[in-house]
Input
Amino acid sequence: MIEPIMDKNTLKGLNILIVDDMPFMRNFIRNCVKRSFQGCHCDDAANGKSAIAKLRTKAFSIVLCDWELPDIKGDEILRWVREESEIKDLPFIMVTANDEKESIMKVISLGVTDYVVKPLNCEILTEKIQAAFKSSC
Output
């Protein structure tokens, strides 16, 4: 798989996959990251099947994924990503209203990069994305 072109110092050229079943949330996240990371590219998926199909065919820099999706849940997508040799190290941030301790511990054990609880704050989401790339360098 071709690696996305990205300058890790400025995070220009990010290719972001936004996975959420709510169109307004996908738009909010897209607007937030486009303001914070000029020159980034966003693709989105409204469900897990679409997300996995895109992850199989395109190179992404990071995944921002809701937990509660209508078909394949976010933790199952995370598990799938971590089992795929070509993308197993892809930064993956769970963006969800699920703030239960057991849920957070579950995705930590699956290898989530970070976790953001809704309602979203653009500044916090930006910091989490930046931190994901600092830790992967």
Observations:
- Residues 1-9 have pLDDT under 50 and may be disordered.
- The longest strand covers residues 15-19.
- Helices lie at 23-36, 48-57, 74-83, 101-110, 122-136.
